[in-house]
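Why should sequence recovery work at all? Because a backbone constrains its sequence more than one might expect. Tight turns favour small or flexible residues, buried strands favour hydrophobic ones, and helices have their own preferences. The token representation captures these environments compactly. In the example below, the structure is given first.
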């Protein structure tokens, strides 16, 4: 796997290797997007701290996205020191996701820095948080968040207060232990696994506009506290983002972490969040109830050419057996073959997978020919395709025209995003960024079935 250089000095990194990123080629225009709802004192602290950033002030703009507050945020005290804009949406519930999208739409920067209205950045926060996204546009970076009671800190003294806290910055005091443990376990998300999305907190999140636009922004259907950052991070990863934790990008959150707050009905609150996320996040850890959802973990595209209804039954059944999967039948006679199958199974569909599914599933399997998978064939193939593994596995059928390929969605999308911007073909780009493997069909329990298998009993 190798680093791919773009013509503007930026780079496309292999797998999740943010540790290979070089120096930022330029000083980008940074858009700080702040969702806000009736938090005048907290916002004042954030804006004052933004006037003291080491990032050049002429390369910084601030967008305050008001989620329908009863009184619009008053930013007049900072307009002479910050390039600041206020945008507002109607109050229709907790719509932080939609507010962030609204803020981005009003911004101009090539790097987007998301801060919450109660999260006060230290002087070097922006400079550190943008280092990776400015040089490697696939990077999705989460900073470090400490907690304190800032209710008695005045806006005109917040810079002094931040300076007084410097001795605390090198320790993990005042930080949520679950995040400290996760960043330590994953080497600051260098090895994120499939569950790294749980450690991307939108209060201290930074990415390139290019990645944000390609991913499609935050999901505005989230109208309840929590969950929208996990969904955005997970979808970003499936679409080829590179996760990184930047411990030097430190901000102070006014108040305790959610886990330490006195939240009534805590379990029911988290259940609302989980129920909103589980149809959209295919991580097996999220789907432990054994239920099936419209968006599967594994998308299987079966080419119907050369199939009879009987052979297609064997191929489709093998692909679905014991899996969180759905099959799309693709070919001239797909509709007729589905009718002949006589099944009433929502996991079997005709045509091509939609964009929403392809942006959230972990794997895409393409099958041609009368192949029959055993109960664990796709599981064994998928285990090789993922963070730290390869991007694609091809099954060798020893000269037969049959074919099976398993590709991670993140590899597919990163290659799609950059194929037109580099001087190598898509297949070579996939190999250089993620690696490609070949396995013999016998190693994973796949056989070639009969064109007309006997179904009688």
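From this structural description, the recovered sequence reads:
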């Amino acid at each position: 796997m190798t680093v791919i250089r773009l013509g503007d000095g930026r780079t496309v990194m292999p797998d999740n290797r943010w540790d290979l990123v070089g120096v930022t080629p330029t000083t980008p225009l940074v858009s700080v997007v702040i969702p806000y709802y009736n938090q005048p004192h907290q916002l004042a602290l954030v804006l004052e701290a933004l006037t003291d950033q080491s990032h050049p002030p002429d390369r910084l703009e601030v967008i305050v996205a008001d989620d329908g507050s009863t009184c619009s945020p008053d930013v007049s005290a900072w307009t002479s020191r910050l390039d600041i804009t206020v945008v507002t949406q109607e109050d229709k519930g907790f719509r932080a996701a939609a507010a962030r999208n609204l803020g981005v739409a009003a911004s101009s920067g090539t790097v987007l820095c998301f801060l919450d209205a109660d999260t006060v950045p230290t002087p070097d926060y922006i400079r550190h948080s943008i280092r990776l996204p400015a040089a490697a546009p696939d990077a999705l970076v989460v900073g470090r968040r400490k907690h304190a009671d800032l209710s008695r800190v005045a806006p005109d003294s917040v810079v002094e207060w931040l300076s007084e806290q410097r001795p605390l910055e090198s320790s993990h005091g005042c930080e949520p232990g679950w995040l400290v443990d996760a960043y330590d376990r994953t080497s600051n998300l260098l090895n994120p696994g499939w569950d790294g999305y749980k450690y991307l907190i939108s209060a201290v999140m930074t990415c390139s506009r290019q990645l944000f636009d390609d991913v499609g922004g935050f999901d505005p259907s989230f109208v309840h506290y929590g969950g929208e950052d996990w969904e955005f991070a997970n979808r970003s990863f499936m679409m080829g983002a590179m996760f990184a934790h930047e411990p030097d990008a430190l901000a102070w959150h006014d108040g305790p972490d959610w886990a330490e707050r006195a939240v009534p009905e805590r379990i029911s609150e988290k259940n609302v969040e989980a129920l909103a996320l589980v149809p959209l996040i295919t991580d097996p850890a999220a789907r432990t109830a054994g239920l099936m959802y419209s968006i599967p973990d594994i998308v299987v595209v079966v080419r119907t050419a050369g199939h009879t209804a009987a052979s297609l039954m064997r191929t489709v059944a093998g692909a679905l057996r014991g899996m969180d999967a759905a099959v799309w039948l693709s070919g001239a006679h797909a509709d007729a073959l589905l009718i002949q199958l006589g099944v009433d199974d929502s996991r079997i569909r005709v045509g091509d997978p939609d964009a929403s599914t392809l942006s959230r599933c972990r794997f895409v399997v393409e099958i041609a020919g009368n192949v029959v998978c055993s109960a664990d064939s796709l599981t064994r193939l998928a285990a090789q395709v993922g963070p730290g593994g390869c991007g694609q596995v091809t099954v060798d059928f020893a000269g037969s025209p049959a074919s099976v390929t398993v590709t991670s969605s993140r590899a597919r999308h990163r290659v799609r995003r950059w194929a037109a911007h580099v001087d190598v073909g898509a297949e070579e780009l996939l190999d250089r960024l993620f690696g490609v493997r070949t396995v013999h069909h016998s190693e994973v329990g796949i056989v070639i079935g009969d064109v007309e298998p006997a179904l009688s009993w």
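A few observations help interpret the result. DSSP finds 15 helices and 19 strands in the chain.
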